[in-house]
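Review form for a predicted model. The reviewer records the input and the model, then writes brief findings.
Reviewer: anonymous (R2)
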Amino acid sequence: MTETPGEIAILIARYDRNWLISEAAGGGYYAVRRHSLSEGFLGRNDLSNMICVPTLGEMARRLAAERKRENRL
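Model under review:
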């Protein structure tokens, strides 16, 4: 599947309030939470401060899952 620059722009528009999303230097993509959560809070709630994935599709799935877990808190 070929990824387009527009796809990353869609993710940035959707999640930019909480995540910094970018291409990784060695390939793939990463997202870093703009406001880090404590390790204890992350572990108790199955959340992440950073996500590294090979494709934008996987990034979209992971960010959606993070948002779903955050919304249940």
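Findings: DSSP finds three helices and three strands in the chain.
Further findings: Residues 26-73 form one domain.
Recommendation: see findings above.
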